[in-house]
TrEMBL record:
One of its GO terms (cellular component) is cytoplasm. It comes from Physeter macrocephalus. The lineage of its organism: Eukaryota, Metazoa, Chordata, Craniata, Vertebrata. Residues 184-214 have a biased composition (Basic and acidic residues). Residues 162-220 are annotated as: Disordered. The gene is PBDC1. Residues 172-181 have a biased composition (Gly residues). Residues 35-159 form the Polysaccharide biosynthesis domain. This is Protein PBDC1 isoform X1.
Amino acid sequence: MEATGGDDEVVSGELTSLAHAVSLPAECYGNDPDIEMAWAMRAMQHAEVYYKLISSVDPQFLKLTKVDDQIYSEFRENFKKLRIDVLDPEELKSEAAKEKWRPFCLKFDGIVEDFNYGTLLRLNCSQGYTEENTIFAPRIQFFAIEIARNREGYNKAVYTSVQDKEEEKGATNGGDKGANSGGEEEKGANREGEKEKTNKGGEKEKEAYKEINKSGETAM
């Protein structure tokens, strides 16, 4: 999937810092270091794909699963007052929270593939996947919160930030072209650039949708 070099470096750097975060006790993986490593790599890959997706496409128009409507409806019916822009880990990880989340998650057993597969979830949706901003969550919990963030407009902060940077780069490059090639050539280049950007955006969404819905190699 195509992405800007600068953003790729930021995402890769943040994901590298998660190496410690994904080092859960070995007993969680049956004392098999190969399984632990495979799980960690898969979780980080999923996080990277998803972050690129919401950076490239307006999140309000994204569809993460075939049952987004059902997930969102059930989620907001059961968690009406849950704040999702900045998550409180206690609302997800405390014993009381686990008791409330468990019936919700189990409803999607057999509906969402690998519904309980371990996934990385951002606490503050305006920020990336850093160690401090990341917790572990079952896949269905990730989908519920991220679908809600997309539909309720919270994830647009990431998309807007990345697009603003792209426009700034485009304006700078456009100015250089204008000085060298003339106004008309600049307009033509900008029109072609917008067309190419639109096409690439559609390709990114399709590719990322396939990647984010791939089955996990290891179930939690």
